[in-house]
Amino acid sequence: RGEAVFTPFVDERVVYYPSSSDVNYVTQMTFIRNRYPDLFEVDAKIWPMSGDRNGTWEPEIFHDGKVAEIKTKKGLTNNITGGTQLESFYVIDELANVEASWNGMLTNWNGVLGNPVTMPDSTVLTRFRPAEYSAGSGFNSAWPPSLISEASYSMMATHGARISNIVSRTFISDLPNIDVPGSSKANQPGSIFIVGTNSLNLANARIRGEGGIYLETKHLVSSENVSLDCQNFSFKLGSTNGLLVIEKMLPDYVERLGGTIETFSAAWGGGTYDPPGDDTDSINLHNSAVAVDANLSLTNEVKVYEATLTATNVILRDNMKIVDKLLVDSETLTVDGTLNFTVRDINDSPYNTGQYFWNKSVTPRLTHLTN
What we know:
By secondary structure, this protein is mainly beta. The protein has 2 domains: 6-165 and 256-299, no CATH class; 185-255 and 300-370, no CATH class. Helices cover 2% and strands 48% of the residues. The protein contains 2 helices and 27 strands. It has helices spanning 98-101, 131-134; strands spanning 6-15, 23-34, 40-47, 65-72, 76-77, 84-85, 88-93, 105-107, 118-120, 123-126, 151-163, 191-196, 200-201, 206-208, 212-217, 220-222, 227-229, 232-238, 243-246, 253-273, 283-301, 303-310, 313-316, 320-329, 332-335, 339-341, 368-370. The chain has a 6-stranded parallel β-sheet with strand order 12-15-18-22-24-26, with no helix packed on it. The chain has a 5-stranded mixed β-sheet with strand order 1-2-21-20-11, with no helix packed on it. The longest helix is centred in the N-terminal third of the chain and has 4 residues, at 98-101.
C-alpha cells in the first residue's frame, strides 16, 4: 500500500544446547504501519522464548510472541478530571508458538456481533499494557532481504478489527445504535439519561458518555460552564420564561481513540544454512513475522440524533449536525451557528431515515427566522 511505510523491528539470535549438536537461528520480526505519525508513535517488544506445555525445550519453534504498541503522542482530554491521559493499543502475535497457532479460531458470541466472527487464537488485541510488553526485550537487528529463506513448514493468519468506544453490533451497523426495526436511542450501552421534569440546571456540570447523552426538561435554568463530552446527543429542552439559548453546550468533535487494526502474521522455517568450511554444521532456520496496519484517529464528530426545542424564542449558537429529527417549537428562531441536516449513512438499508430536509414540521409555529 502507498502512503505511510511499515517500521521494521527485527530480532536475530542463535539458540543451541550443550546436549544437542543442532544449531538454530531464530529470527522474529514486527512491522508496524503508522498512518498518522504526528498523532501516534509505535514500538515493539519481544517476549523471551520458552518451552512447550510438556516440558520439552525446543525454543526454535516455541516463541511466546511479539508485541506491537501504538500510543498517542499527546494525552486525550478527560473532561471529568480536567486532565489528560495517554491512550495506547497493543497487538500480541503468538503464531510462531505452536501451542497457540494450531488451536484454530476464536468465535465471538452472536449476542455481541450480528454474525459469527472469528479471530486467530494466536492474535491478541488489548487496550491494557500486557506483561509481554512490560517485561519484553527490545529488538536487536535490522531488516536484510536475506531473511527470506526456504521452509519445510509454514503457517499464516490474518485479522481485522474496528477499534471503538461504542459497544454495538458492529457487523450490522457502524451507527451508535443498532439499525434494525424497533431499535431505540435508549438501548445503547454507555448512555446517560438526565430528565428534569419541571426544571434542569446544568451550570458547571461535567458529563461524559460513550453511547450517548439524553437531556429532557421543560425549563433549562442554565447551561453556563457546562462540559458535555459525548459524540451522540438527543434532547428535549424548553424554557418557560420565553427564551431558550443553546450556547457552548455541544462540541463539534470529541476526543476518542478509534479506527481499524489489520494484522498479517506468518511463521516458516525448517530450511538450513551451511556456513563455509568442511567442518561446520548446518544451521536450522526459523522465522516469524507480524505486520500491523494501524489506521487510527483521535476525534469523533458530534451528532445530534433528536432535538426538540420549545420556547417562545430560540437561539442556536452551537453547531449542530442533525441525524433523525429536529423540532423547534417557537415563534422566533435565531441561528448563529451552523445547522446541518443529514441521513443515516447506511448503504442499501431499508430502514434509512433522517432529517435531511427543512419543512413545516421542523418549525410549525415559526413566524420569524434570523440567520
